């Protein structure tokens, strides 16, 4: 019987839960307000209070001894998909030399410390499908500027979980399928899965805009604008104040849909443009798969929208059937990944710094 605690740290929350044989026993989300987080100058200054909040809950739940603790992986640099044993090399990388600062970098250290307290003898802690999973084919990395290569950084944990799930839902396996997945949210990313590997990836700054990201922009129009902004301010504009937020003054798609129902024609156009760009992104990745696509999946928060789903489906269903898996499946993905490892259905990896 596999008893596993899973952890998913976010910018202003920590989601975690307890699973037995990959079945949910309970989950919990601890939310933090922005002012509380801002008190800490460095990300890892948050470690003690985040860990202690989880430990308090585990104590209240009279937690059993665990077979594994599995966390969402942080920005460790390019790695293949799957599980990585948390060791000192991985901890040092995430704390002192991550690709980017993000709350997910805290997860490995939290998992490691929970295992020390609750782990069975010989149990291990893992990260699974970290943000920087990179299995892209080499030709997909090349851009028209020698100094810049395309990178694979995004919602790999949720997208790979959805790809595995759609295959299972249709009585086949991930390793036998070709699947395109688009994760639609505050930032949107998409991935092409060929026979069990993520062979191409579209990041949140390349094609489709999202709730708060600009997506790809015409460079001739962007360059003059850059004269008026520092790099930091331009990054904020493109990554936090763009997309639906820039076009309609809100990133809340439900609110926007209410405006459309009330007759806001421009809001209707913007959502139609959003759907078209999502479909273009999927089409791009379908090309990488040479049109041999078994399923297209939409996931993430904006996949709840019937309007967006129906519009995207109308654009792209000529390629393959379009399936919807709204929201995110990250906790169950961590639990199932850990379960596969402890039952020897999947081998874990060691991080090579």
Automatic annotation (TrEMBL):
<dbReference type="GO" id="GO:0005524">
    <property type="term" value="F:ATP binding"/>
</dbReference>
<dbReference type="InterPro" id="IPR011245">
    <property type="entry name" value="Butyrate_kin"/>
</dbReference>
<dbReference type="Pfam" id="PF00871">
    <property type="entry name" value="Acetate_kinase"/>
</dbReference>
<dbReference type="GO" id="GO:0008776">
    <property type="term" value="F:acetate kinase activity"/>
</dbReference>
<dbReference type="InterPro" id="IPR023865">
    <property type="entry name" value="Aliphatic_acid_kinase_CS"/>
</dbReference>
<dbReference type="InterPro" id="IPR043129">
    <property type="entry name" value="ATPase_NBD"/>
</dbReference>
<keyword id="KW-0808">Transferase</keyword>
<keyword id="KW-0963">Cytoplasm</keyword>
<dbReference type="GO" id="GO:0005737">
    <property type="term" value="C:cytoplasm"/>
</dbReference>
<dbReference type="InterPro" id="IPR000890">
    <property type="entry name" value="Aliphatic_acid_kin_short-chain"/>
</dbReference>
<keyword id="KW-0067">ATP-binding</keyword>
<keyword id="KW-0547">Nucleotide-binding</keyword>
<dbReference type="GO" id="GO:0047761">
    <property type="term" value="F:butyrate kinase activity"/>
</dbReference>
<protein>
    <recommendedName>
        <fullName>Probable butyrate kinase</fullName>
        <ecNumber>2.7.2.7</ecNumber>
    </recommendedName>
</protein>
<keyword id="KW-0418">Kinase</keyword>
<dbReference type="GO" id="GO:0006083">
    <property type="term" value="P:acetate metabolic process"/>
</dbReference>
<comment type="similarity">
    <text>Belongs to the acetokinase family.</text>
</comment>
